[in-house]
């Protein structure tokens, strides 16, 4: 919460306002759990101006009372609520007066390698207060919550934001590793020539490529917004915190290069799969054409001899049927021999 904001009193507890968890941090100490927003607001009011720590409140926006409570009592900047109304956009950290706000896109807790399993976490960062809000359970913020629950100390509100960004980078790296393992399996199958699985593999590659593109577009922090924020941060942000955010940005850069390389690899494999499918289709079409050509003598001769006209050769000959059968068999055999030589030439 900014220096000039004093939280108002509040009458109902966390069961009514969507509080998921809350912690009070002091420098060098583990976070102390906060049972309700009433307790958090009282704590902030009691320690206003002392700046000896900060409070983190993690809110569930699916709760009907969460957003009204945030508007009435959290003292957040208008930019935070404008970002809420925008919906899911690229991850960014921006300054608004004496506060920071962040839009952090993260994968859902039940992530199943689907491009749609990406949701947004909104974070308002002030000197004495951090408010994070989400509509769906998310992986990175849950990692942060578990780390705090295990007793990890955070010395400032920006340190909590930095921890969240690093958790997001770690989660993104985990997704990249899992995707690479899937692609390795598909590549082995393609190189082994398992043609019966090409269609399934092509569908899987398209899905993984959509996932990689969406992750790169949504989870990557906007470099311009981050650089502007770090060049002119609020006065209470320490030089050490700025360096930590710089390093977090560099970690994201490494992961994004891995995702870009992954996209190139998937594209090459899609081209390989498409080439193999085209080869299979060409062979099937050639085989169908050869079958049609082999049946040509039978269809031609049977058509000619099926006409009810006079002068049909061998009509009165006792062995006429067998003679014509031998002629048809000879023509079919000759065409089959030519077809086999052509097939051998293609191989």
Walkthrough of the structure:
By secondary structure, the protein is α+β, with helices and mostly antiparallel strands. It folds into two domains: 14-275, 2-Layer Sandwich (Beta Polymerase, domain 2); 295-346, Up-down Bundle (Methane Monooxygenase Hydroxylase, Chain G, domain 1), CATH 1.20.58. It contains eleven helices and seven strands. The chain has helices at 14-17, 37-46, 66-73, 78-86, 139-149, 157-191, 198-219, 223-231, 239-294, 296-305, 320-346, and strands spanning 19-25, 32-33, 54-60, 92-96, 99-107, 118-125, 129-134. It has a seven-stranded mixed sheet, with helices on both faces. Helix 6 packs antiparallel against helix 7 and helix 6 runs parallel beside helix 9. The longest helix has 56 residues, at 239-294.
């Amino acid at each position: 919460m900014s220096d000039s904001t004093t939280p108002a009193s509040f009458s109902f507890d966390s069961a009514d306002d969507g509080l998921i968890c809350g912690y009070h941090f002091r420098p060098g100490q583990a976070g102390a759990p906060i049972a309700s927003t009433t307790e958090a607001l009282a704590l902030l009011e009691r320690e206003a101006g002392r700046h000896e720590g900060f409070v983190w409140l993690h809110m569930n926006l699916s709760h009907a009372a969460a957003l009204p409570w945030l508007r009435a009592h959290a003292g957040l900047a208008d930019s935070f609520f404008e970002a809420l109304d925008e919906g899911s956009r690229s991850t960014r950290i921006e300054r608004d007066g004496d506060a920071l706000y962040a839009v952090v896109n993260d994968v859902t807790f039940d992530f199943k390698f689907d491009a749609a399993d990406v949701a947004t976490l909104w974070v308002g960062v002030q000197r004495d207060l951090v408010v994070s809000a989400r509509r769906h359970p998310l992986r990175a913020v849950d990692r942060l919550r578990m780390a705090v629950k295990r007793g990890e100390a955070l010395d400032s509100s920006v340190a909590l934001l930095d921890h969240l960004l690093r958790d997001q980078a770690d989660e993104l790296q985990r997704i990249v590793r899992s995707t690479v393992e899937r692609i390795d399996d598909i590549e082995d199958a393609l190189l082994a020539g398992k043609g019966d699985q090409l269609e399934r593999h092509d569908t899987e590659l398209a899905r993984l490529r959509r996932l990689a593109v969406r992750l790169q577009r949504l989870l990557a922090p906007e470099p311009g917004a981050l650089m502007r924020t770090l060049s002119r941060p609020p006065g209470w942000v320490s030089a050490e915190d700025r360096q930590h955010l710089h390093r977090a940005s560099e970690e994201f850069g490494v992961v994004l290069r891995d995702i870009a390389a992954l996209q190139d690899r998937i594209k090459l494999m899609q081209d390989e799969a498409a080439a193999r499918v085209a080869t299979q289709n060409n062979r099937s079409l050639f085989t169908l054409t050869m079958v049609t050509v082999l049946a040509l003598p039978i269809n031609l001769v049977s058509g000619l001899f099926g006409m009810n006209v006079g002068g049909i050769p061998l009509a009165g000959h006792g062995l006429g049927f067998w003679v014509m059968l031998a002629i048809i068999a000879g023509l079919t055999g000759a065409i089959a021999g030519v077809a086999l030589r052509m097939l051998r030439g293609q191989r």
